[in-house]
Purine nucleosidase/pyrimidine-specific ribonucleoside hydrolase (Aminobacter ciceronei), 307 residues
Amino acid sequence: MQLKPTRKVIIDTDPGIDDAVAILLALKSAEFDVIGITTVAGNIGIATTTRNAGRILALEGRVDVPVIAGAAGPLSRKCFDTADIHGNDGLGGVAFPDALSQPVAGDAVTWLRDTLRAAETGSIDILALGPLTNIARLVTEYPEAAGRIGRVIAMGGAVHEPGNIGPRAEFNIAADPEAAEIVFGAGLDMTLIPLDVTRKVRATRDDTAMLQASDVPAAVASGALIDAYFQSTTGGESRPLHDPCVMLLALDEELFGCETLKLAVDTGTTRDAGALTVSEDGAAVSVALKVESAAVLKLLYARLKAE
């Protein structure tokens, strides 16, 4: 594929096994100028997600990318506990070095506001891998700064697929349905990548062995992370790579098929909280519904193994 022009991106994330693979992919891709990582509670608590962001950056020797802690919980709900999937450290027990620098003092939403205000309108994209709490707060508290975002690409939701945290609800949206409703309705240039696509992008044991046979740290770590995913979840001979799809779509959108859908978010208190429904009353969002699975996996593995 032909390299796209470099884009400034902020990664909003709750690392997380597949978040870590996605972040490593971004750091290994020249198309992304990663100018910051903002963290949110999700897969695990905010102290751990923030520490993990620093540890992932340390693996690549990146001291130039600031980490800024964000929301410690949803706008109005309790956090989920997914330690059974991601491990008590959030990274499946995979060894990462200690962070090379401390998180930036202050709050992610304030940092996002200041960073967006200082940049040319539309010049910074947000790659969102977790609950949308930080972005919802930015939209609510500083709408003029949110309006300066170039594009938001987010992993979340299930449209025609069953959920993974409830019958119809996917984790990232169910973790903070009110935040998702705010962000969907904010009029941002937004693309959502739901389980309908991410469940088709699957790594096998052969893939993890291939990655770990590399002498490139990002590939070795990614192979170990996906292996940890095999240990903690059931699902046959492969595992879905949810969050890397965000970076992969940003790298080569032609490998995905998107449609504009009007989506309503269930903000109730049942197990369907966070479920998405296509409705005339919903907010218009570009949604990825198709993917060339083999091609995106080839791109992912090539980038992770590149010297």
Remarks:
- The first strand starts at residue 7 and ends at 13.
- The CA atoms of residues 260 and 286 lie 4 Å apart.
